[in-house]
Fold this sequence. Notes:
The complex is a heterodimer of chains A (486) and B (287). Chain A is of the alpha/beta class and 486 residues long. Chain A folds into two domains: 29-266 and 466-485, Aldehyde Dehydrogenase, Chain A, domain 1, CATH 3.40.605; 271-450, Aldehyde Dehydrogenase, Chain A, domain 2, CATH 3.40.309.10. Chain A contains 15 helices and 20 strands. In chain A, the strands form five sheets. Chain A has a seven-stranded mixed sheet with strand order 14-15-16-13-12-17-18, with helices on both faces. In chain A, helix 3 packs across helix 4 (121-140) and helix 10 crosses helix 11. With 287 residues, chain B is α/β, with parallel strands linked by helices. Chain B has a single domain, classed as Aldehyde Dehydrogenase, Chain A, domain 1. Chain B has helices at residues 47-66, 69-85, 87-98, 102-120, 126-130, 161-174, 189-199, 215-224, 238-250, 268-274, and strands at 14-16, 19-21, 28-32, 38-43, 132-134, 140-148, 151-155, 178-182, 208-211, 230-233, 254-257, 276-284. Chain B has a five-stranded parallel sheet with strand order 9-8-7-10-11, with helices on both faces. Chain B has a three-stranded antiparallel sheet with strand order 5-6-12. Chain B has a two-stranded antiparallel ribbon with strand order 1-2.
Amino acid sequence: MTVTPERTRVRWDYSPAPESADHVRLRDAYGVFVGGEFADPRSGASAPTVNPATEEPLADVAVAGPEDIAHAIATARAAQEKWAALPGLERGKYLFRIARLMQERARELAVVETMDGGKPIRESRDIDIPLAAAHFFSYAGWADKLSYGLAGRGAQPLGVVAQIVPWNFPLLMAAWKLAPALACGNAAILKPAETTPLTALLLAEICQEAELPPGVVSILTGDGATGAGLVRAEGIDKVAFTGSTAVGKDIQAALAGRDVGLTLELGGKSANIVFEDAALDQAVEGIVQGIFFNQGHVCCAGSRLLVQESVAEAVEAKLWERMQKLRLGDPLDKNTDVGAVNSGEQLERIETLVAAGEEEGATRRTISCDIPERGHWFAPTMFTAVSPVHRIAVEEIFGPVVSLLTFRTQAEAIEKANNSKYGLAAGIWTDKGGRAFEVASALQAGVVWQNTYNHFDPTAAFGGYKESGFGREGGAAGLRPYVRVR
Amino acid sequence: MTPARVAVRKTYKLYVRGAFARSESGRHDPVLDHGSRHVANIARASRKDVRDAVKAARKAQAGWAGKTAYNRGQVLYRAAEALESRSAELAQQAVDLRGAAPAAARDEVAAAVDVLVHYAGWTDKLAAVLGGVNPVAAPFLSFSMPEPTGVVGVVAPEEPELLGLIGALAPALAAGNTVVAICSERWPLAGLDLGEVLAVSDVPAGVVNLLAGRRAELAPALGAHRDLNAIVDAAGDAELGAELDRLAAETVKRVLRIREAGDAREDSLRRLEALTELKTAWHPIGA
């Protein structure tokens, strides 16, 4: 009898590879940034911002109130005229400076973004911060070419713009908002999200370093009440909001009958469609990128996975296998794929919807992995046997949860994809170029990715159809919301 | 002696789904001229008519958007031709009904024809002006192109009833949208006559639907319709405008406000932008 020696099991564990945070110098407390200076908020209120991976406070941050808002608007108004009167090239040079400073401080910004928001350092380092700098760089060059970007029309800045950004891409969204507004000659008041104010405050320091004229950019940190007060305040000429559809609708209604410009970039329930002729392994990578990028805290996340019936089993098996290789944990670790959920509140929302999915009869699978003891976490999850009317197929979960549905024909895929009140993005996986273009043009979505997902660029317009909002950010189209054309 | 010929009067109906129909409500409204003389009866549309019209417009939308830009342009140009051929009659109507000065009435109708010609020429330019290839910093062919927003509601101004209606309709149509429009309440005849112009211009059934009646009843019903994607408010009524804004917020409708009926051509790109969605597509270059 021969005894086969037991094969030595090869383990592919990674050693921890945390990005060092020791060069980060955060202040204990941040006031409001108005008139080029930090100052204690007139509201007298502040709140800690917390690292969602450790639940430890990072800094104390002002909660701006009505007096702070009024003061910021008056300061912005006073600065705006001079800013708009600067030759475009000179305005642009300030934006170029900001882009450069962001690149210089990229590592610090990435680490702080990850500590404050919970996203993996790999993403903040490779995507958020470089793209934010690129956005300033790109719009810097528009400042003296506005009429070219507006089909030859003359452009007047709108004045003082209020910009509210979400917590999923804090600095990147700030850049998407500020860069075009400033290039067009507006003064901006930015309200970062309650849970992720820190990189915006570092951006305030960068504005100081760039010697941006005081008052051109103000940063008012705070909660939902701060934002609600800001968008309704007298003296605001335009509101740009990125966030939930519910709040977007509130803002649109609040501005009814007023001559205030508005652009909204809201929620989504984007379809990622896999046809039977697709390169399935590549598609699976794209599905993972589409839904687990940034813990699924992405407005354009490919959260509705539509797979052609003939390959559904294969895709499901490959996806499940791939999902189990995802590494959840310390966001500062360079090997981490899935970081911390941004807040306890968001975790609750994810858990509620996932529970609804189970109650409504869908089949849930969540990968088994170590969950850190502290912090907010949700392991990558897939639902199968999902009906199009299930809440998990209709509502935005904003977490690492994908719902798999199937279709038989291309027409059915299009119909299912469009059967949503949202219309932000979509993905198409196919080897047939003709099909890709045909389906792309039939989808009611502002962005359609073919054989890829979640790519962004300052030159490419981004924004939604239907209840995903209106107006575009990026490219020449991104100038339009910030000017009155003549 | 031959007795004087008895004129054949026109029954003014709504124009929905390419057909001339009475209101489902069976109601009518008298139309009085500027001297309060009875001129005609019009069908007075109901909220149900609004819903039917939106349904017709939705059904027609994909087909209209799917036509080539060249074809849409030819259809709109054909409408301009048909309107031109009736311009003397429509100008006379403005004189008789509203008491407009003859020269001004002629200018107004001519301007309306020119607006149609202008937008007919926009259909195949829009993508080049609003879209293009995005020079992204990665190996992708990325491009952005305008697409129609979908079904557009139009609330026409009281005056100029024809030019104001066409200046609100034409950008929506040129961009590939379908339309439900509420004509001028005080002077509804020109808007309803426009239905006859469109009906002989190869405008597919349902692409334009024209309703007449009480604005206070119809406009909010139109603005509140959940299957409407955008609203063009050319009414010039601040209170109604605020109400339409509030209703629009319920489903994130786009709102285009038109303040000057006279600058439909100078203001055309702004109007077209407001009724289009920019779609960005990314295609990989290489494997």
